[in-house]
Amino acid sequence: MRKLLLDGLLRRPLTEAAPVAADAATAELATALERAARRRLGRSLSIRQVDAGSCNACELEIHALNNAFYDVERFGIRFVASPRHADVLLVTGPVTKNMAEALRRTYDATPAPKWVVAAGACALDGGMFAGSYAVAGGVSAVIPVDLHIPGCPPSPTALLQGLLALLEAVDG
Amino acid sequence: MPALVDLILEGLAVPGHRPWPRAVVGREVWNFAAGQLAAGRWSLLDLWGEPGRVHMALLDEPAAGIAVISLDCADGTFPSVGRQHAPAQRLERTIHDLYGLQPEGAPDTRPWLDHDRWGVRHPLGAAGTAAPPLPAYDFLPAEGEGLHQIPVGPVHAGIIEPGHFRFTANGEAVVRLEARLGWVHKGIDGLLAGAEIGRAAMLAGRTSGDSTVAYGIAFARAVEAATGAEAPPRARHLRALMAELERLANHFGDIGAICNDASFAIMHAHCGVLRERVLRAADAAFGHRLMRDRAIPGGVATELERGGADAILALVAEARRSFPALVELYEETASLQDRTVTTGFTSPALVRQFAAGGYVGRASGRGFDARRTLGYAPYDSLTFDVPVREAGDVDARVWIRIQEVEQSLALVEQIIEGLPDGPLLVDLPAADGEGMALVEGFRGDVLAWVRLAGGRVERARLRDPSWFQWPLLEAAIEGNIVADFPLCNKSFNCSYSGHDL
Predict the structure, then answer these.
(1) What are the pLDDT digits (tens) for B106-118?
(2) Whether the predicted model's global pTM rises above the 0.80 cut
(3) Is the CB of A14 less than 8 angstroms away from the CB of B120?
(4) Fewer C-beta within 10 Å: chain B N or C terminus?
């Protein structure tokens, strides 16, 4: 283990430069954020991820945000275990009817000010699963959505661009 | 011992079901098959429904034989298989929820995927209104002095899929765990029925995102079997290349995540880097990090990108360079071994009974691997070992993954070296028929079954390996401490979405 740790200290970090925040997302968010909310948050966002029916591909890429290449915590963005600690709900999947109430209750348990980011093609409008007897629709069919990050699944870079746009809007 | 072929002869063989036979049988033969399953002579591959009919897929493991028997349920009932063979119970509850067919004599009649939220009962059968409401879900009782319950989920404290776990604990020790699943049920069976083949293939690839390649291949091969087509050799090699990359990515991720659940973060960090390198190589070679929608009926959708093979070979070299140090770290860290060795023991008898595949089966002595046992192309021409262990604990499930990483690295090299030239795709004949395929994903064998009619999917069925692994997790955790649940759960890494459909 000592050798691995030493190597880690001596090697250049794998972490890559931050991508540019997504323009479209910044514009989408400008209206969503009030000045007071921005002051309260500082440059920090706590995210609670909720899988409302995804196929788990989005979860894999959200996980990747924590790896050494993307290192999302350097931006003050971190994933928290409870909606009570969260500023942002990051929701994936078409919302299944079986998960709709759990999603709504998670939203209600999140203190204001709060934002909802819907990640992935299914989260927009149900994607390929739209119209099924078991699917309520996209995330906005159940709770209000502030930002949508497209992709099937969105790459970690796309997720990071969206979240940075949110952070800039919160910070601005 | 009766052979599967005799079973088929007992019934009315259905023409055009490939590559394995299917026969419509009577109740007697159906019950006989259930008895053979209970006696451990055959393994249950799947049990599924369609309106007015149920199907059972059976595996004769030593002979590598597979057969499907079907039973018409004229009166809306069928003899319960779960009454004799427990692994069938959740499948029967699902058949009842979706199609309204009643398993006669079933020991557990509670709903499974139906949480009373769809606004409709038996949506794929003779759909009816959802009134009156279902009674509250009764968890199995655990009684005794000092027992307490811990409900967890469906929304978990992490980036995970939703499921509900009901623990009954005596102090720190788990006395009983019961899982309640179905939260991410999207109605995939229903969406597949009547879908165009292309759309159905995309749906199959979205059944469980971590196995999108395995599902893509399984569905494609089932369609090819149904139409009598065969994917060109180059496509079969590229499919296997993608399948091994998917296995590598998931195994790296799992090895790290299991150690992370024992609070050993350095393994997680390093394995996360390896996983990311696999996904980047996949992106460079196939234009998508998870290689989604690349394996399609008839072949593969994309040619290997320029420089793709080099990116993959560079990945193999990098993994060979850095992975051994991580394996050594895992092996020589006493505090980590203390958490994984003997934890979450899964008995070989249960694994055999449930015919659990993947690392869950192979860590408990069941050597089934569809790549080897069925030897589908191109694996019949490749050299690899199927590691099997007997210990059945978290440690054994980590070791199976470690050994499979080594095998997959070698397979990737062989595949690239022997990559044949030629077309990527054949046109599918416009033929009706039924096809089935079993493909080894990283988690275990993925089953796909289709019936094509008029160029569309009339019916399709996708069975995730998790169906036969989830119940074993409940047995594995018994007697362990609650704090070891994440560790046990991650060592199984069952799919919620693949199971819930």
Answers:
(1) 999 999 999 999 9
(2) yes
(3) no
(4) N
